[in-house]
Structures are given as structure tokens and as C-alpha cells.
Design goal:
Layout (H helix, E strand, L loop, with lengths): L8 H4 L2 H5 L5 H4 L7 H30 L5 H28 L4 H8 L11 H10 L20 H12 L3 H10 L5 E2 L2 E2 H21 L6 H22 L1 H10 L6 H12 L7 H32 L11 H10 L4 H5 L15 H6 L7
Antiparallel strand pairs: 1-2
Helix pairs in contact: 4-5, 4-7, 4-9, 5-14, 7-8, 9-13, 10-11, 11-12, 14-15
The structure holds protoporphyrin IX containing FE.
Length: about 350
């Protein structure tokens, strides 16, 4: 074959286009700033990695949209979630590279960037929406909707992602279909509730029988015990859970919550390893996005102090609040409040251990 017909490294990777895609605004304005190249390349690298995250996420959503999801689908999803996690770690570390630019160096070209901002990253919004960040749970950004700052074609895609199936909804649906909750006469929730009630009674006795307590200490300990009892009662009752959903204090349905708890409590059963890994990796992803947001906010404070952002937000203050609020799977993490130690777990009947398969049908 002729040499110029062979696939060439730079053609395959479209390097001519890629490496010609760094247009320095400072150069255009006649005062080239050395660090603007770093600023552009770091942002472009982020967008490439966002593209890869979306590629993985879309494939996982497709797997979860199927009518039946089998064990290999779960394992494949876990592998892809793991890949997202490794990319996220890179994204957090990349901030250090950008921080080799000082705040004074940033000032050399910052004025040329108004009113553009990372706030306009449509891929970042797609990731948030596809994971399941609900539009009503987003922080208000001035008086504007977060989509108002996007380009027309990007806005359409982001809007679409708000209305499509998200990882949160598909996970909820999958958990609700878990066949283990009531199975062959074994009612997990009834057994779990009975264990909790008896543990709480024992705890009350321990408080009451403690000879070292003063009357004040006894009252205060009983008060906090009552609060624990209330929290458990609210957790156990579907009605109370639904009330919290209506008030916007919870999102995950009671059925899905029960299934997730079962998976966490019985994760030592081989059959629950993959479901447990799936839930754990989703919590990791949520945590790592929070880490990235916090890390980005710290870097922003170092770069611009208390100034407003180029996109017009309160800057560092907005970013910290978003890190706190924009979480998707925190209800899974909160479940540890309701864990009980292994030795107190209701024992799974032998026939259940034998019969349970990985195959979930809708
Ligand atoms: C000198 C470096 C940077 C500064 C000073 C900075 C500053 C800011 C500020 C102030 C905001 C809030 C919106 C606004 O008012 O503009 C913001 C949002 C954002 N930035 Fe950056 N940023 C920097 C680097 C980066 C990098 C490297 C990325 C990677 C893609 C990025 C991605 C984002 C995203 C996704 C948001 C939206 C966050 C949200 O709404 O939760 N930023 N940035």
C-alpha cells in the first residue's frame, strides 16, 4: 500500500484540528498572556474527559433501560462506573496543574473571558442530569434558570436529559424489582422491624438501669433515645416515608429504600456482591463529584478571592453551596443510620439462600 494511504497517527486522532484549537483571547486583544494556554488546555482536557464519562454513563443507562437486567449487566455497569471513578480522581488532581498559575497571572487575561464561564459547560450539566440531579433541587443561580446561559443546541440536549431516564430513576426502579423483600414466607421488613424494636427496648433498659446516671443525665439520654425511636419508626413506616417524599425531604421510594438496606445488610451473601458493588460505586461517584466541587471552590477562592465569577454568580460562595446541595445518591449513604450489626441480623432461611438468583424480571 502507498505510504500516504496508510492510517496515520495524527490523522486518526485528528491532531491538526485538536492542536489548532487553542485560540488565546489575550493574543487576539494584542497582549498575549503566557498562562492562557494552560487555562485553555486544562479546560479542553476536562471537556474530553466529560465526553468519556457521558459515553460510559449512556451505556449504563441503556443497560438499565432493558426489561430484565442480569448479573453480567450489573458487573459490566460496575466496571464502567469504576472507570468513571478513576477519571474523576484525575479531574480532581488536574486542579493542581491549573494552580501552578498564580492569581496575578490569571488577572493578565481574566477580563477577556467575560461573560463566559465553566457554568456554561453543557457536558457537565448532562452528567449531572443523567446521574439524576433533579431540576427542582438545583440551587437558584441569580434569577436565571441554569439553562438560560447555554447555546441553543446545547440547551435542547440538556433539556432532553432532564426529561429522560436518569441513573437515579433507573436504580430506584431496579431496586423496587428486587425479589428478596418478601420471598417464600420470609418477610424481610417485618423481621428487620422486630429486631429493631427489641434492640431499642434493650437500649432503653440499659439507659434506665445505669446506676451512675444523675436524674438530668437520665432524662437527657432518654430524650435522645426517644428521638432515635421516632427516626426508626419513621423509617419503618411506608406512610411516614411517603409524607417525607411529599415534603421534599426524601426522594427514593420506600420500596427501593428497603431493597437497598437489604443489600447493604446482607452484602456478605455472594448473591448480593454485585448489587452491593453497584450501590457503593454510585455513592463513590457522588462523593467524588462533591470532592471535585469543593476542590474547584477552594481553587476559585485562591484565584479570585471574594470577586464575582465571570459568569456572574457570587463565585466561591455559590460553588460551596452547590457542593453541599447537588448530591444525587446521599440517601444511600444515609442508610447507615439504620444498619444493625451482623450478629443481630435476621437469619436468611436456607431455601432463600439457595433459590435466589441474580435475574431480575420486570
Ligand atoms: C482559574 C480557574 C477557574 C476559575 C477562577 C473558575 C471560576 C468559576 C466560578 C466563579 C464559577 C461560578 C459561575 C460563575 O460565576 O462564573 C465556576 C463554575 C464552574 N466552573 Fe470554574 N473556574 C475555574 C476553572 C474551572 C475548570 C478548569 C473547570 C473544568 C471544566 C471549571 C468548571 C466549572 C463548572 C462545571 C462550573 C459550574 C459549577 C456548578 O454550577 O455547580 N472551572 N467556575
Amino acid at each position: 500500500m502507498e505510504k500516504d494511504k496508510l492510517l496515520n497517527y495524527s490523522d486518526y486522532l485528528k491532531l491538526d484540528q485538536l492542536l489548532e484549537s487553542q485560540d488565546l483571547m489575550s493574543l487576539k486583544n494584542g497582549e498575549p498572556a503566557h498562562d492562557e494556554m494552560l487555562f485553555i488546555i486544562v479546560h479542553q482536557s476536562y471537556e474530553l474527559w466529560f465526553k468519556q464519562i457521558l459515553h460510559e454513563l449512556d451505556s449504563i443507562l441503556d443497560l438499565f433501560c432493558q426489561k430484565s437486567i442480569n448479573e453480567s449487566d450489573i458487573s459490566r455497569s460496575v466496571l464502567r462506573l469504576n472507570r468513571i471513578i478513576e477519571i474523576q480522581k484525575l479531574l480532581i488532581n488536574q486542579i493542581r496543574v491549573l494552580e501552578t498559575m498564580t492569581a496575578m497571572d490569571f488577572l493578565e487575561f481574566r477580563d477577556h473571558l467575560f461573560p463566559s464561564s465553566g457554568f456554561q459547560s453543557s457536558q457537565f450539566r448532562l452528567i449531572e442530569n443523567k446521574l439524576g440531579l433533579h431540576k427542582d433541587l438545583r440551587l437558584k443561580y441569580g434569577k436565571h434558570n441554569y439553562k438560560d446561559v447555554l447555546k441553543k443546541n446545547e440547551k435542547v440536549k440538556v433539556e432532553d436529559s432532564e426529561n429522560n431516564k436518569t441513573m437515579f430513576l433507573l436504580l430506584e426502579n431496579w431496586l423496587e424489582r428486587t425479589p428478596f423483600l418478601v420471598f417464600d414466607g420470609f418477610d424481610f421488613w417485618k423481621k428487620y422491624s422486630d429486631v429493631i424494636k427489641s434492640l431499642l427496648k434493650q437500649e432503653e433498659q440499659v439507659i434506665r438501669n445505669n446506676p451512675k446516671h444523675t436524674i438530668d443525665e437520665l432524662e437527657s439520654n432518654l430524650k435522645s433515645h426517644d428521638a432515635t425511636v421516632l427516626a426508626f419508626n419513621a423509617f419503618i413506616s411506608t406512610e411516614k416515608h411517603n409524607e417525607l417524599i411529599e415534603k421534599g425531604e426524601k426522594r427514593l421510594s420506600h420500596k427501593a429504600t428497603k431493597a437497598a438496606l437489604l443489600i447493604f445488610l446482607y452484602r456478605d451473601e455472594p448473591i448480593l456482591h454485585s448489587p452491593f458493588n453497584l450501590l457503593s460505586r454510585l455513592m463513590d461517584i457522588d462523593e467524588l463529584f462533591t470532592n471535585w466541587r469543593q476542590r474547584h471552590a477552594i481553587m476559585v477562592q485562591r484565584m479570585i478571592g471574594g470577586k464575582i465569577g465571570t459568569g456572574g454568580s457570587t463565585g466561591h460562595a455559590y460553588l460551596n453551596a452547590a457542593a453541599d446541595k447537588h448530591k444525587v445518591f446521599s440517601e444511600l449513604s444515609d442508610l447507615s443510620t439504620f444498619f444493625i450489626k451482623r450478629s443481630a441480623l435476621p437469619e436468611l432461611p436456607k431455601n432463600i439462600k439457595e433459590k435466589l438468583g441474580y435475574y431480575f424480571k420486570s
